[in-house]
């Protein structure tokens, strides 16, 4: 069964560690993530973006894939399945499908509208024991050194009062690869928000932030760190290396077998996640 993560993330917030939220894309990603979690005996959140769901054939296919792999791999650590950056309709769909957590991302709306829609999602989700993540401020989209729009303390209070279970805040963080002249995370704002609300805080754009900054953010109240690009880079690098080293073997050793071609990249994701778990300080459940 899927865990809604409420205990997991509240415990993380209270005890100043974080649990990774890793985006899946397909069978290989799903298995690589579950394997790293099981080997390290740590709880894990797997998340599905709208784009990844489309790629896999929809939110139901993605959910079935994760659940079937939990069974097939005999996974015994808690797994949270989260919709990542969902719009209102996607959040409702994933609640109906039985995702154990949904993110409603209303950052493009006015604050009032974002809050109103978030409240509707909270009501629908909580009736079913599903947890909700909301977003305040804006996560940058690789367009500049400053990151997106800083979340305000006032918004943090309003969304915490609305009953969200996790809160994603814009604190200078950026999705994708960070620009060379990136200004870094805004720890002053993070601290102000963390002092004002006790809800677990989420750091989006977790790939490529220097280790000391990730650790400092966690010490201040970040309890969930979202990682997507890091695994894509790890997969790409290992796959490229393998292709270059084996380019002459295509026919000789059944070098065209996709199970061989995809293995190095898949293993690189597991290795990268194990490193990340150390950074985040995610404790083993045993
Ligand atoms: O919601 C997903 C994340 O914020 C991932 O960001 O691709 O920069 O690691 P990233
Ligand atoms: Zn994100």
From TrEMBL:
Pathway(s) this gene product operates in, as recorded in its UniProt entry: Carbohydrate degradation
Cofactor(s) needed for function: Zn(2+)
Sorted UniProt keywords: Lyase, Metal-binding, Zinc
Protein name listed in UniProt: Fructose-1,6-bisphosphate aldolase, class II
Organism, as annotated: Lactobacillus xylocopicola
Taxonomy of the source species: Bacteria, Bacillati, Bacillota, Bacilli, Lactobacillales
Gene assigned in the entry: fbaA
């Amino acid at each position: 069964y899927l865990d809604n993560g409420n205990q997991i993330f509240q415990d993380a917030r209270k005890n100043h560690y974080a649990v990774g939220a890793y985006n899946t894309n397909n069978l290989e990603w799903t298995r690589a993530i579950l394997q790293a979690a099981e080997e390290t005996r740590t709880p894990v959140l797997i998340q599905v973006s709208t784009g990844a769901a489309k790629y896999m054939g929809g939110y139901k296919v993605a959910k079935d894939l994760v659940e079937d792999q939990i069974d097939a791999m005999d996974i015994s650590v808690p797994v949270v399945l989260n919709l990542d950056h969902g719009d209102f309709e996607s959040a409702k769909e994933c609640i109906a499908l039985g995702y154990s957590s949904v993110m409603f991302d209303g950052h493009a709306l006015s604050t009032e509208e974002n809050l109103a829609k978030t409240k509707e999602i909270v009501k629908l989700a909580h009736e079913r024991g599903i947890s909700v993540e909301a977003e305040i401020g804006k996560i940058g989209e690789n367009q500049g050194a400053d990151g997106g729009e800083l979340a305000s303390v006032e918004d943090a209070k309003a969304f915490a009062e609305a009953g969200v279970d996790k809160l994603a805040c814009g604190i200078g963080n950026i999705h994708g690869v960070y620009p060379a002249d990136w200004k870094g995370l805004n720890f002053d704002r993070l601290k102000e928000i963390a002092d004002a609300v006790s809800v677990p805080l989420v750091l989006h754009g977790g790939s490529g932030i220097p280790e000391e900054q990730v650790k400092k953010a966690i010490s201040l109240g970040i309890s969930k760190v979202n990682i997507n690009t890091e695994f894509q880079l790890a997969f790409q690098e290992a796959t490229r290396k393998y292709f270059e080293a084996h380019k002459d073997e295509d026919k000789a050793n059944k070098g065209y077998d996709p199970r061989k071609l995809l293995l190095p990249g898949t293993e690189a994701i597991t290795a990268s996640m194990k490193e990340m778990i150390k950074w985040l300080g995610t404790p083993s459940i045993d």
